[in-house]
Amino acid sequence: MNITFEKAGEILQVGLEGKISSVNAAQVEADLLAQIAKGESDLLVDMGRLDYISSAGLRVVLLVAKKLKQSGGVLVLFGMQSQIREVFDISGFLSILTVTDTREQALTHFSHLG
Fold first, then answer.
1. Which segments constitute the STAS domain (predicted)?
2. Would you state the pLDDT for residue 111?
């Protein structure tokens, strides 16, 4: 699992690559929560290179989304491969999270920053 962080204006762009499973979910959670603890409140997550996500990984996404919502922040996921999108769909997460196909579509959800 590889996570990258890149700041673009007020938005923290997060790149996820590989697999999120019970083996590494706690580390992914710690890395993302550390960014929020440093004051990041708007996360744009590129899931285009994420090949697998387990229920432990879904829990991390939900926890991060709740944490950001509490602080008035925004979490937008984009670029999911079909198998990842299916997991989010089956789990009901597509109806409670903001998920777009492209980065450009995702950026429109940060209009409160402009």
1. 1-110
2. 74
**Which pLDDT value is given to residue 36?**
97
Q: Which residues of the chain have pLDDT under 70?
A: 112-114
- Model's pTM, two decimal places? 0.94
Phi, psi of 13, rounded to the nearest 5 degrees: -90, 130
Report the CATH number of the 2-113 domain: 3.30.750.24
d(CA 91, CA 56): 12
Return d(Cα 56, Cα 71) in angstroms, integer: 23
Nearby residues of 5 by Cβ (< 8 Å), 6 or more positions away: 12, 13, 14, 15, 35
Task: Dig out the tokens for 2 from the structure.
Answer: 């590889």
Q: Choose among 20, 29, 37, 27: nearest CA to 73.
A: 37
Q: Where are the domains of the chain?
A: 2-113
